[in-house]
Amino acid sequence: MEDGLSRLLVSFFLGGLVSLATITNPLSKIPVFLTLSTGFEAGRAAQEARRACFYGFLLLAGGLFVGVFILEAFGISFGALRIAGGLTVGLIGHRMLFGNGDATQIPSTGSFAFFPLAMPGIAGPGALATVIGISSEIAELSGGVQRLLAYVATVAAIAATCLLIWLVLRSARWVSRRLGAEGINVTTRLTGFLLVCIGVQFVGSGIRSFMAGT
Description:
By secondary structure, the protein is an all-alpha fold. It contains eight helices and no strands.
């Protein structure tokens, strides 16, 4: 029993971390962050990065816990959500693979922590679809202990993802110098391919769940 719970905990943590770290693509935020923080003192830029990651965590955690209730309110099945989420993730991956995958708009003045860095930079459509899809999987688990552990593991994965993004943003200038524009571009293309694969997996899982419910 304990081995099964441990595997469940590890599975949801690693699955959530890999999916979210892939879809948020921390390295792709470097050029945007450097542009947004132009003219900012180092302390102010670091503060904006911390706030953005905190806001991103709150948005993703909120999507995890209220996502299922929103689905029930609108009568959306878990299978339909996974199919829609998979298509969304796949389309974002396609844009990253073959074009510009960052739709972030740059504001002219003021703080950029919430918009556009936290949303849609961190908690964009793909990331929100991912956590809501995970919440639908958790809702289908049997047993309160299993669901609790799955939620704990997923929240930990969200926190780890936001921490990773913060570390990248904190060292944005150093990473940018080491990778260069070409290195960041290659990383973005590879990430896009992984997102297409994750999207296909979501769609396949959604079709199975959708057919089983009919």
